[in-house]
Amino acid sequence: MKLVLAMMKHETNTFSPVPTPLARFMPQADDGRSDADRYAGTNSALGAYIDLARERGVEFTVALAAEANPSGPVDAQAYDGMVGAIRDAVAAGCDAVLLDLHGAMVAQTSDDGEGDLLEAIRAIAPKVPIGVTLDLHTNLSAKMVANCTVMAGYKTYPHVDIARIGRRVGEIVLDTLTGRVRPVMAWANIPVLAATLRMGTDDEPMRELQAMTVAAEAEGCLAATLFGGFPLADIHEAGVSAVVVADGDPARAQSTVDALLAAAQRSRHELLYRAEPLQASVARAKALAGAPAPDGAPADGPVILLDHADNCASGGTQDVMTVVAEVIRQELHDVAVGAICDPQAVREMQAAGEGAEVEIMLGGKADMPSIGRRGVPLAVRGTVRALTDGRFQITGPMGTGRWMEMGPTAVLDTGSVRFVVISRHQEPFDLGMFRSVGIEPTRMRFLLLKSRIHFRAGFKPIARHIVQCQGEGVTSSDMSLFQFEKVRRPILPLDGD
Ligand SMILES: [Zn+2]
Known about the structure:
This protein is an alpha/beta fold. The longest helix is centred in the middle third of the chain and has 17 residues, at about 250-265. It has 2 domains: about 1-270, Rossmann fold; about 280-475, no CATH class. The protein has helices spanning about 35-40, 45-55, 75-90, 115-125, 140-145, 160-175, 205-220, 250-265, 280-290, 320-330, 345-350, 430-435, 455-460; strands at about 1-10, 60-65, 95-100, 130-135, 150-155, 185-190, 225, 240-245, 305, 335-340, 355-360, 380-390, 390-395, 405, 410-415, 415-420, 445-450, 465-470. It is built from 13 helices and 18 strands. Bound molecules: zinc ion.
């Protein structure tokens, strides 16, 4: 028996000005290991497939291991090259295909990156079982479901159960090969562009909705998934959906999908986001630094300010300075910022050297034409505190064991604010972003994080309070900023209820 394994992951923000060439998918540092050895034992779906194949003594090949931080549509050449690598491996012959996909890939030549990939594989291997593990932020399409055998998505956000879901998909496909199960799938979507900020699975309504998927599996479904979707994608199928895999029982798959989506539809208003003005949020954070911790939070941890409209893990440029400027204007002290992506600023600090006093124009390098904003840098004077290669191994629960690559990195210390300045987009979800550059996050009074929900994986346990700050950027939760042309209409919140 032989398996073809592949990872091709990208969450495409069609409003993002950040380009997505092939280089964005490739590891920055080649440590000489094979893809199989690099991903084995990690909390990833590809890692789970590799571990499962090795445990069962099944031969496998890794056709592709490509993942990139969210950004604009994938370059046509990059997309064709990645699809071609997977297609060629399948064409060489295999008994099953296991894919680690995001489920929200848009290429310059395809609005449905995963659907077109799966259709291409099906065309050359019509009888081979295909299993797919997807992100909770998948925009599901009919083409995706029609061209695979089994699919399941993460049930957690932050995504801490990735390997568990990947293993489940792998097991169902192996059981299909031996005739133990006969998977059948049903799917549907509802007209809701849910806000990512409202999809955290510690919070309602997602906690209850995900509990329903767990219950459906306990009652005998092979896999039940409710996707929150990814709203910053102007494609027809963007939004909330569900897919259920049942064992030889299409009616059961369909009735489970219907029950999940009926519950999501009832919760639709809770899935939308309402922001407070930025000035009020920063003032609230400042006041909370002197307030007692709520139940369950550490008594002396930092107050976290979330700059969620510029989250690089949703396509943000990670260099918008709006929230930083307001924090400085309101004179917050003892702040660490994670992180500003500005390779030019890093080069300037490298040239000046550690310990040097510098004045630089920080951030604001990227324009954001989709929301009619130009990049606005902030003049910052301070001391260069650290210069590193930006690599650290993740110790927290999300992506445990994998290496984070921030690119050349520098710390700029103004006395009140310490900026981690990086050269490669990386969302702060692991304490290593600060510790690897000599900042102890638990000792700071404030942490300003460019993140939305994933920061919770590493930072929620140390946070005394968390304040969402609506700045500017292409990952804003204010959907009225964006011009949607292709998404199915009517849809919430663009068209009212
Ligand atoms: Zn996601």
